[in-house]
Design brief:
The protein is built from 5 helices and 2 strands; from the N terminus they run αααααββ. β1 and β2 form a beta hairpin. The protein is elongated and about 105 Å long. With 167 residues, it is mainly alpha-helical.
Length: 167
């Protein structure tokens, strides 16, 4: 009888807290960033990344358009020279320098297009990875604290590492 009374008082409580994980959040964030750059960062509530996304894309698009415009100006001037006209804005340049300028601006235009594509893909990857990392539980139960402390024997500073894991 004493054993049953003792068994009634014992209760097992679950100390593990379950959190619901949205498995579609990373793919949603990536899709939103693919449709409209920066929207995945807004979905992840990382608003501070928006100026970085638009700064990177805007700068590379600006340089693409600028280099493309200059490429076409030099190309058109060279074509007009081949047709026999000499009334262009680049009378101080000979044909070899016009060709050199075309190649220079074409190379820079292509590099700007490549960087624009790279930053667009990086925007999508950032939104996806950030949504994945939001699902990790980061708290004080697992900590890593590097610290400088004074060695008692040599009185010189030493680097110490404290790793804490609470269950």
């Amino acid at each position: 009888m004493a054993q049953t009374e003792l068994g009634e008082d014992l209760r097992v409580t679950d100390t593990v807290k379950k959190t619901k994980i949205n498995m579609l959040a990373p793919s949603k964030a990536a899709f939103y960033s693919a449709v409209f750059p920066g929207l995945g960062q807004v979905y992840n509530k990382k608003y501070w990344k928006l100026p970085l996304v638009y700064g990177a894309l805007g700068t590379t698009i600006y340089f693409y358009m600028s280099n493309n415009k200059k490429y076409h100006l030099y190309r058109d001037a060279y074509k007009r020279r081949l047709e026999g006209f000499t009334d262009d804005d680049y009378t101080y340049l000979d044909n070899a320098r016009l060709i050199s300028a075309q190649k220079f601006y074409q190379k820079n235009r292509d590099l700007s297009a490549l960087l624009t594509g790279l930053f667009y893909v990086l925007n999508i990857v950032d939104a996806n990875v950030d949504a994945h990392l939001m699902q990790f539980n980061v708290n004080d139960n697992l900590t890593f604290k590097p610290d400088l402390y004074r060695n008692e024997f040599t009185t010189k500073p030493d680097l110490g590492i404290c790793v804490t894991w609470k269950l």
